[in-house]
What we know:
By secondary structure, the chain is α+β, with helices and mostly antiparallel strands. The protein has one domain: Sandwich (Immunoglobulin-like), CATH 2.60.40. It is built from 1 helix and 9 strands. The protein has one helix at 2-23, and strands at residues 35-39, 45-50, 55-60, 68-74, 79-84, 91-94, 108-118, 121-123, 129-133. The longest helix is centred in the first third of the chain and has 22 residues, at 2-23. It is globular, with a radius of gyration of 20 Å.
Amino acid sequence: MKLKRALARLAPVALAAAAASxxxxxxxxxxxxxxxxxxxxxxxxxxxxxxxxxxLKVCDIxxxxxxxxxxxxxxxxxxxxLADTKNDGKCRxxxxxxxxYYNLPEKKWIEIxxxxxxxxxxxxxxxxxxxxxxx
Length: 135
């Protein structure tokens, strides 16, 4: 009988905790990424891009002590990059509203190249992906 009462009291707490975890998902996890994942040749970096809001996600997915980045080149000359230098299994994010640096022009071709650091250089032997930024 005591066990039934204890379970009856714990059930609402457990239900509330489960609901809270669903409601507090990070904004980045709610994004349906248009492009990606893209990897470099060593599979040490994973890159995603969402056209609406020019959202870029770079993840260091290999604990090898190297940092990773995504080079983004826009038709007409603009280039940006986003690096993940932490090697902590987490990702770095950017979006157009962060600054004008990350605000990419519309109606242009975009190229994304994931890469891993090799000393003071970036190994760009990963496949470059191209798409038309129409959002």
